[in-house]
Amino acid sequence: MTHAAVPDTTASARPSWVKRNKLAIAPWIFLIPALIFFAIYVVIPIFQSLWLSLYEWNGLYSADGESTATWVGFQNYAKLWDDPNFWTSLRNNLAWLILFMLAVPLGLFIALFLNQTVPGMRFYKSMFFFPFVISQVVVGLIFGWFYNPDFGVVGTLWKAVFCEETTNILGNVTFTCSRPAPDILSSPEWATYGIIAAGLWPQIAYCMILYLTGLNNVAADQIEAARLDGAKGWKMLWYVVVPQLKPATFIAIVVTVIGALRSFDMIAIMTQGGPFGSTNVLSHYMYEVAISEYGERYGYGSSVATVLFGIMLIFISYFLWQMYQDEKGGR
Amino acid sequence: MFLNMKTAVAAIALSAMAGSAFARDLVINFDDLNPGPKKGFDDAVALFQKENPDINVIVNINDREAHKTAIRNFLTAEAPDVTSWYPGNRMAPFVDAGLFQPVDDVWEENGFNDDLAAIKPTMSRDGKIWGVPYSYYQWGIYYRKDIFDLLELEEPQTWDELLAACGKMKENGVTPFTIGTKFLWTAAGVFDYLNLRTNGYDVHNALTAGEIKYTDPRIRATFSNWETLINECGFVDNHASMSWQDAIAPFANGDAAMYVMGNFSVDGYKNAGLTEEQIDFMPFPTIDASIPGAEEAPADAFFIPTNAKNVEDAKKFLAFVARPDVQTQWNKTIGQLPINSKADISDDKFIQEGFALLNGASGLAQFFDRDAPAEMAKAGMEGFQEFMLDPSKVDAILERLDTVQAEVYK
Questions:
Q1: Which of B94, B152, B240, B272 is the most exposed place for a label (fewest CB within 10 A)?
Q2: Chain A residue with Cα closest to B369
């Protein structure tokens, strides 16, 4: 009897290790599948890519499966330093970062404009949101046609102003222009801005929707109080509404920065980095160097990827730190 | 995958009908899904199967772009017995990595050293021959015969005649050349011809092999001729935003009269509504009469991977695809030129002219992006496009190409 009672009491007094640490273990058990996949598909490839950037490799294995890569140390990075295409890409990345930020205030103004109760407002809102729903590839294609100097909107308008319709030697209709139509996507000066403008279209819609949801949470009593104190117009917006939209602004800036740095699809669709590399950004240059038909320099491509990763890391760490600070403040 | 299954099943069904036991599998990877080229290949395979009932042919057909990516994996991972690929520098990475095996014996045994002599240098690397070509096509100037007739112009034979003809076209409001350089390679066609005509095959070959600098006076001469061509002849506006297909539109409309192109473009002209009487072909005019005529003639070929399991039958197939009767039939189907000098050609006028042209050629270039290594080709073609947009940048462009060249061929 007593003999049986002893283990019973020890069990209740000293529960097993798993039971004691149940609360600490449970989250990890739930996290394990995600962590495994995150490691396989994100973390390990990052290190593989870093490692590969120290090799020169054309992506081929020999017949018996040996990699044909040769160790070159930091030569790829030294090459990058002297590569004008790399600097062009970096400069374009900067242009993307700066100009893409326009999406945040523009999104805010459209959101303010759409934040009214008018019959059919849902319809207008969805129309404004529409460009974000369609694929980036489609947006690129549409803008590519839009800019086309022969049959696009730009070309057609230009023809209406500067060109006259004549017949050519065979009697077919053709246009002779007093000055040639602007070829935005083939001009090394303007092509990048043309693509950024196309990229802004869906990005503004994205920021707009973030602000629209944010505006729902703006405290009505504070607005009323401000109004009683005589605030209106810009002052009301700047001192009362915008501060309350801070979480939305934060997210809008984060997605815009990341969107700007990831700008790949539109460049691939609209110019393939051309004319002669002048619209490349790091992400597209990396693709071009490593994976495209004329690339096959995986080591060099990895070094471009590493630089891009470094730049992204700066922003991401800042954002994470900011979020961490906010959470600390919230507690 | 579905397609592979289907063709494999078809092949099995076919040989089952022939009522034979098939002991050996022969896996062939091919890279063109377009109806014409696919039919040419399928017909050839069917004939091969009929002649060799003891071999079970399994074909995998992919489209060109997918094949370019896939070959980099399948040569190591799961090698077929035969694969299609391109000669010249395009085969170099695979040869250097030891992924293709030499087929000198196939050439020896079948007398290809004589019958395919013109293409032999292109198929060789490190003193060995690596594949067998089945088809090629000519490049040159396609022009609107009706416009030439209206302006009473003859096919220009020399550089001066070409410039004079251009002058007359411009007076009459016709842009001499159409081109679409959005995807870069079309500009390389113009460069190749100007360089072949200005300096000849040997200098051109030395340039793409990295033995001559781009700032060499001879190459500068090519670029100055190109500048003359841009100024005195001229290309359509906005060519940098057009693909080669887009550039057919001004040609078809009669706004532009000439197009430096490969023979595959004839289908495009016909689809744009032009008839055989409206278009014609001429060789690129001579610039320096003392230089023997060399032409641009990209070839398609078959190779045997090192990891092939059935090398014996693979060699049998390679010998088969270069046979005169096979090449005759195959190229009739796909509208290109057989490489075997004993083969016959179809009576299509472009093919006839191309055949005469290539048979008289002293050397055959494979096109800039096959002759030069990939990195050089990319930089070169970007430079060509930039030059066409602004010829005054020539010095900066050539110096940059020298830098890339020094890097690529070290």
A1: B152
A2: A294
Report the mean per-residue pLDDT for chain B.
88
Among A279, A259, A287, smallest CA distance to A195 is for A279
Q: How far apart are CA B255 and CA A192, in angstroms?
A: 30
Please give the full DSSP string across A195-238, using - where no structure is assigned: HHHHHHHHHHHHHHHHHHHHHHTS-HHHHHHHHHTT--HHHHII
Ordered domains of chain B (ranges, CATH): 2-136+300-365 (3.40.190.10), 139-296+373-408 (3.40.190.10)
For testing contact with chain B, the best of A70, A173, A294 (most B CBs within 10 A): A294
Contact B100, B314 (CB under 8 A): no
Which residue of A68, A162, A276 to mutate against B (max B Cβ within 10 Å)? A276
pLDDT in tens, A150-207: 888 988 888 888 888 888 888 888 888 878 888 888 888 899 999 999 999 999 999 9
Q: What is the pLDDT of residues A294-330, one digit of tens each?
A: 878 899 999 999 999 999 999 889 999 988 988 887 6
How far is it, in rounded angstroms, from Cα A103 to Cα A107? 6
A185 touches chain B (CB under 8 A): yes
The rounded percent of chain B whose pLDDT value lies above 70 is: 94
Q: Does A81 touch chain B (CB under 8 A)?
A: no
Nearest to B254 among A58, A84, A172 (CB): A172
Q: What interface predicted TM-score (ipTM) does this complex get?
A: 0.78
